[in-house]
What we know:
Elements: H1 2-11, H2 17-23, H3 28-36, H4 41-59, H5 66-75, H6 82-92, E1 131-141, E2 144-153, E3 159-165, H7 170-183, E4 191-194, H8 203-212, E5 215-218, H9 228-241, H10 250-265, H11 279-292
Parallel strand pairs: 1-4, 4-5
Antiparallel strand pairs: 1-2, 2-3
Helix pairs in contact: 4-5, 4-6, 5-6, 7-8
Amino acid sequence: MTAKYELIDAEKANYAIVDMCRWLAVSRSGFYEWRERPASATAERRERLKVAITRVFAEHYETYGYRRVHAGLCRQGERVSPETVRALMRELGLVVCQPAPWRPVTTEAGDGHRIPDLLGRDFTAPAPGVKFVGDITYVPTWEGFLYVATVIDCYSKKVVGWAMADHFKTPLIEVAMDMAAVNVSFVEGAVFHSDRGSNYTSEAFGRKLDSMGVRQSVGRTGVCWDNAMAESFFSMLKNEWLNRFTFATRDKARRQVVRYIEGFYNRRRLHSGLGYQTPQEVEDRYLAGQSVA
């Protein structure tokens, strides 16, 4: 009966109450009595949860699906099931902005090259500073492309190094590596993995890694899965953030890239692969454990 009363209440602006009561075979007196009842505890809780869900969704720039929203609510002390969160998000019409499933462009492999693949698609690491992945992408602006190079620590998934310029030459990725060396301690024999772009396989970049005591690793030609972690980050950067904007200048694009990396991704975005923690939390927890030991 409650469902019928809720339907009448929702449609009262479009149809006469007397007609809807007749169509649904309920009495008008019963409907008005139902409207005067105080809200049930369940209904009140659902309304409170809607407010909390909307807040978490908005605070994370509409990038969270129901699982991450649920994790965010749990971190705030809310006890609620993921399916309840999912249902309420549907009621609220909250549509998430998420990367489309990532697919390789080609699976043509080229195995004959001098730099080995030391990761073999294993993007896990026992500690920070052991394995890194990197890549370059571009952001279109009215001034031309802004090129973005990143270095990601495989342990925490944190972007520990980044650089931007109007070119994608070797100095760009060297600047990103220098930032990474400042932000995390490289262990002896650390590995940096990338695709086989000409800048990454250049002799100059090879000498740079040698001077840092870092072993170089590259994937096979045309096999995007071999650098999936780096590719996945750029997918998130563009689909969750940059695709919302049209940039007049490289400077404006640069500010949004920094805002995403340092203001959201590293410190606020919950990662399912990290047990719904942020990269910064994972790194901090490791370092705290080491200091206690």
